[in-house]
Amino acid sequence: MTTNIDTLWLFALSTKCTTINFFFIFALACFINLFFQWSKHKSTIPGPRGFPFIGSMHLMSGLAHHKIATAAQSCRANRLMAFSLGETRVIVTCNPDVAKDILNSSAFADRPIKESAYSLMFNRGIGFAPYGVYWRTLRRIAATHLFSPKQIKVSEDQRMVICYQMVEMFHHKQQQRGTNSVCVRELLKRASLSNMMWSVFGRRYRLDSNDVESVEMRKLVDEGYELLGMLNWTDHLPWLADFDLQGIRSRCSKLVPKVNRFVKQIIDEHRGQLVPLNGDFTDVLLSLEGSDILSESDMIAVLWEMIFRGTDTVAVLMEWILARLVLHLDVQSKLQDELRRVVGRSRVVTESDVTNLVYLQAVVKEVLRLHPPGPLLSWARLAITDTTIDGHDVAAGTTAMVNMWAICRDPQIWKEPLQFRPERFMIEAEGLMNMSVMGSDLRLAPFGSGRRSCPGKSLGMTTVTFWVASLLQEFEFWRSECDGYNVDLSEVLKLSCEMANPLTLTLRPSPSRPITAASSRR
Fold it and tell me: Worst-scoring range by mean pLDDT, 22-31, 128-137, 146-155, 491-500?
C-alpha cells in the first residue's frame, strides 16, 4: 500500500484552516449577536446609546460635566439620563427636583468604590466607607470634634494667623519679583494645607517655610489628588484590571507606604505626650473610648482623608473668586465699599464681621453657582437596593450622578444664567435672598445634600469668606501687568474643577486698608 505524501499534507492543512475558520466565524457570530442585542436594548430612561463593550466612556473624559450636559440636551433627558461606562450602569440628572430624590434617598447611601480610592485607603474614611455603623461613627466624631459651630469658633485664631501670613507673603512676593504681579495658586494651596495641618495634626508651619515635613506632605497630597481625579478605565472595564495600563495601581502602591509612615510618625508623637498639647483632631481620635476606638490603620486613613479633602476646595474656590473680582472691578468696588461701611478703617476685619458682609456672601454664592468646585459633586452615589427615581426603575448597583454645573446654568431656573451677577441673591423679587448653599436647596448645592454631603462645608465657607474679606481689606486686585496676559476662565476637571491656567494678578493697596494695618496684622 502506498501513501501520497502531498495528499496527506494538503488534507492536514485544510483541516487546520477549517478549525481556524470555525473559531473565527464563531467569534464573529458572538460579536454580531452582542451588537444586535446592544442595538435593540431600550431603557425606559432616555440616554446616549454608547458603543459595544465601552459604552459612553468618552463622556467622562476631559470636561465631563460639559459633555454630560450636552448629551442630556441632545437626548432630551434633562430630568434623568441613563448611559453605561463599560460594565457600570449610570444615571445622571440635571434637574434639582430629581437631584433631591437621589441625594436624599436611603437607596443611594453608598459611594461606588474606585480602585484608586480603595488603594489610597479612602474606603476607611468618611468619603467612601460603606453606609453603616462604622461610617456613622466617623461622621459623628468629625461633626462633633472638627466641624461643629463650637469647634469652628475655637479655631478662629488659627485662620487669622494663617491669613496674616498669607498677606505678608503676597507683599514679599511682590518685592521678590520686582513687580506687582503675583501668581496666587501656590500660596492659596499652602495656606489651605497649613490650616488643615494645624487642625488635624497640630502642626503649625509658617507659609514661607520650606521645612522637610510640610514639603513632603504637599507632595503626598498632590500625588493623591492627581490619582483620585483620574478616570480609571479598570473601574468600568474589569477585564483590563490585570494590565494597569494607566499605571494608577503602581503609583498608589508607592504612595500609600509613604502616607502610612508620615501619619504614623505624627500619631506616635502624640501618643508620647503625657498631656495633649494642642487638642487637635489626632488627639481626639487617640482619646476615643469603647466602641468608638479606631484601629491604627483606620486612624491613619481618617487623618489622611481629612488633610487631603480639606485642602483643595478652599484653594480652588478662592482662586475662582479672585479671578472674578479681577474681571468685574465694579463688583470688587462694591465689596470695598461694604468693608469700609461695616468694618471701617480703624481695625482689621474678623470672622464675626462676615455675617454683616451681605454682598460678599452674595459674591461667594455667585462664584459657587458658575464655578462649583465639584461640578458633578465630586463623588457619585451607589444604589444599594432596587429603587424608583422620577418614575423609572433603577437597579441596585447603579451609579448616580448630579450635574450641579448644568443645574446652576439652567435658564429655566436662573435669570441670565451665564452672567456674573451677585445682586441676584440680594433682590427680593428674584426670590433668592435666603438661598442656602448648604444642601437644602438643590438649585445651588455645591457641597451636595443628604447624608453624604460634604461634612466640612461650614468650615470651608467660613474660611473662604473670612480670607477673601481680609485680602480685600489689604489689596485691590487688577489684571496682571505681564505683557499679553488675560484672565482665562477655561476649566480643567481633576478631582475638583480648577482654572486651567493659574491666576496671575496685580496687587495694589486697598482703599479699605486699616490705617494701623501694618501693626495690627502682626
Answer: 22-31
Q: 127: burial class by Cβ within 10 Å (0-12, 13-18, 19+)?
A: buried
Burial class (CB in 10 A: 0-12, 13-18, 19+), 229: middle
Say how far apart CA 201 and CA 207 lie, in whole Å: 16
What spatial distance separates the first Cα and last Cα of the chain, rounded to whole Å? 111
Domain locations along the chain = 43-520
d(CA 499, CA 186): 13
> What angle, 0 to 180 degrees and rounded to 10, lies between the N-to-C axes of helices 296-327 and 185-201?
150
Residue with cell 468619603: 127
Instruction: Write the CA distances from 516 to 239, 345, 348, 455, 520, integer angstroms.
Output: 65, 8, 9, 37, 6
Determine how β-strand 497-499 pairs with β-strand 504-509: unpaired
Cα 385 to Cα 285: distance, rounded to the nearest angstrom: 33
Which three cell numbers, joined as nine digits, stand for 433?
435672598
- Grid cell listed for 372: 462649583
- Can you tell me which residue has the cell 470695598? 336
**Is it true that domain 43-520 has CATH number 3.40.50.410?**
no
Closest CA to 204 of 161, 170, 172, 171: 161
Q: What is the pLDDT of residue 76?
A: 94
pLDDT digits 0-9 by tens, 157-212: 999 999 999 999 998 887 776 667 889 999 999 999 999 999 999 999 888 888 88
Cα separation, 235 vs 114, in Å, equals 6
The owner of cell 481625579 is 229
Q: Nearest to residue 259, comparing CAs of 211, 293, 311, 223?
A: 223
206 SS3 class: coil
In the annotated binding site, the residues are 454
Question: How much is the average pLDDT of 97-104?
Answer: 96
Residue ranges of the binding site for heme: 454
pLDDT at 11: 41
Q: In what order do the strands lie in the sheet with 504-509?
A: 181-183, 504-509, 475-479
Does the CA dihedral 61-64-66-72 come out positive or negative?
positive
Secondary structure of residue 129 in the 3-state scheme = coil
> Among 105-114, 148-157, 208-217, 362-371, where is mean pLDDT lowest?
208-217
State the pLDDT at residue 497: 95
Torsion, CA 316, CA 321, CA 323, CA 324, rounded to 10: 140
Q: Which residue has the higher pLDDT, 25 or 366?
A: 366
Which value, to the nearest 10 degrees, does the dihedral of the CA atoms of residues 305, 464, 507, 161 take?
-80
